[in-house]
Amino acid sequence: MLMRMLRSVISEHAEDDRDVQGPDASQIALTWSGEPGRLEELTHGMLLDQAARAAAALIRLGVRAGDRVAVHLPLVPESVIATLACGRLDAIRTTLPVSLTIPELAARLRESGARVLITADAAFWDGSVRPVKPVLDHALARSAAVDASRLPHTVLVVNRCSRPVSWKPGRDRWWHEELAED
């Protein structure tokens, strides 16, 4: 229901996905203030474009209507973009809060049944950089020991803090690289 409402609100500003040059395309749709000194603003056109790219990336990764996409992101613009992309596909967005402990996250991962998981390399909060993907990697390893068949096939990693992260070839992919593909 929320997906349909969000899609409806955004769609009011563009008759079809290619019409990102309409009268509202240059109006600010999202303002985000995060890490010290970092401010991001996305116009309606930019937001629609990023959501379309994310939806296309999810399709390439095998996501279809009714599939689950787990989102393990701090409050960043990519979280909104992932929500809109899921709405475009009628996929189910499952939120995995970054505040979960490793055992809690492992249990939620198994329960989610997600095909794809979207996370971040790290995040700024309480004035410092905190790991996000390393915690997720531990939770995935713990979950795999119980039932690997129920884990996501792909992990998309949003580069928020430019920190080195462990990488599992074949599973892990950079968000920005997947969105850049056409």
The biggest beta sheet reads: 5 strands, parallel
CATH topology: Rossmann fold
Q: Which CATH architecture would you pick?
A: 3-Layer(aba) Sandwich
List low-confidence stretches. Answer: 1-10, 12-19
What pattern of helices and strands is seen along the backbone?
A: HEEHEHEHEEEHEEH
How many structural domains in the coordinates?
Answer: 1
Structural class: alpha/beta
What's a quick, concise take on this entry?
This protein is an alpha/beta fold and 182 residues long. It has helices at 2-11, 44-60, 77-89, 102-112, 133-147, 175-180; strands at residues 28-33, 39-43, 68-72, 92-95, 116-120, 122-125, 128-131, 154-158, 172-174.
Fold topology:
Elements: H1 2-11, E1 28-33, E2 39-43, H2 44-60, E3 68-72, H3 77-89, E4 92-95, H4 102-112, E5 116-120, E6 122-125, E7 128-131, H5 133-147, E8 154-158, E9 172-174, H6 175-180
Helix pairs in contact: 1-3, 2-3, 4-5
Give a written overview of the molecule.
- Helix 2 crosses helix 3 and helix 4 (102-112) packs across helix 5 (133-147).
- With 182 residues, the chain is α/β, with parallel strands linked by helices.
- A hairpin with a 2-residue loop joins strand 6 and strand 7 (128-131).
- The protein has helices at residues 2-11, 44-60, 77-89, 102-112, 133-147, 175-180, and strands at 28-33, 39-43, 68-72, 92-95, 116-120, 122-125, 128-131, 154-158, 172-174.
- Mean pLDDT is 87; it is low at 1-10 and 12-19.
Please describe the structure with a list of short key phrases separated by commas or semicolons.
182 residues; alpha/beta; two-stranded antiparallel sheet; 40% helix
